[in-house]
Amino acid sequence: MSIKDRREREKEQRRNDIINAAEKLFFAKGYDDVSMNDIANEVELSKATLYLYFDNKEELYFVIVLRGTLILNSTIKEEVEKAESGIDKVFAFRKAYYDFTKNYRNYIRMYKYFQSGRFDIKKIIDNKHINETIGKIKGDSITHKTPNEEDATNQYLKEIMELRSERFTIMCNSIQVGINDGTIRSDVDPVEAAVLLSSIAKRMSDIPPDHEKILESRGIDHDKFVRDVEELIRHMIMNYTEK
Predict the structure, then answer these.
(1) Can you list the domains of the chain with their CATH numbers?
(2) Of 5, 150, 161, 174, which is least packed with CB atoms within 10 Å of its CB?
């Protein structure tokens, strides 16, 4: 291994060490109660060295949100590809999403805070982003900026939003497959249904405590409630005329 290759490997390892240290602190304390000094102390580097790798705390937060989002998208794509019919693809997507919320609670919590209004993500969620999402649904080719055309923080933010768009497109396409193969009603609009299913999924992990107790009093725990909701959704969109 050349000296140059060794230095690049060491640089990448140090970068990963910083990300892992920041992730540990953000998981434990949340974004606002962690400083760059805290991260530097955790990884045992000087603050000056930290800034050689990341411009600010926000950039580090986005890197970790991106890490969790990549895991989520990879899991969803893997499960959806295994399913054959359109309706099975829809519920493979939803099960993958629900399993992720159970197994990666910290990433979900960080993503919710990312969307809470704390960060200025409107600079990415604009008409251009919406048009790109529509283009993906239609199958249009999309041209992106190269990373050096924008600062690192914006690039991570854009990647997160592109992955969000990818998930939405996967759901739309799954519904369309179901319409085409006859397992989903032909009068279902794929985009409208995808928006509805996305809204339901977000609320499933945030059931108010009083509602949880009411359900428990009827012998319905969270997992059973999720299964019942999935069955209800299946009845809503399934094509019962198909034999």
Answers:
(1) 1-54 (1.10.10.60), 60-102+115-237 (1.10.357.10)
(2) 5
Q: Determine the Cα–Cα distance for residues 134 and 112; give it in Å rounded to an integer.
A: 24
Count the neighbouring beta carbons within 10 Å of the beta carbon of residue 184.
27
**Cβ 238 vs Cβ 87: under 8 Å:** yes
The answer to whether 200 and 211 are in contact (CB under 8 A) is: no
Q: Tell me which residue of 185, 160, 139, 53 sits closest to 22, measured CA to CA.
A: 53
Cβ–Cβ contacts within 10 Å for residue 37, how many?
A: 10
Query: What CA–CA distance (Å, rounded) separates 220 from 213?
Result: 9
Q: Is 139 helix (H, G, I), strand (E, B) or coil?
A: coil
Enter the pTM of the model. Answer: 0.85
115 C-beta neighbours (distance < 10 Å), count: 15
Token pair recorded at residue 33: 């109660």
pLDDT band at 161 (very low <50, low <70, confident <90, very high): very high
Tens of pLDDT, residues 36-90: 999 999 999 999 999 999 999 999 999 999 999 999 999 999 999 999 999 999 9
* pLDDT at 6 (0 to 100): 79
Q: For residues 95 and 78, what is the distance between their CA atoms, to the nearest angstrom?
A: 12
Asked if 65 and 163 count as a contact pair (C-beta separation under 8 A), the reply is no
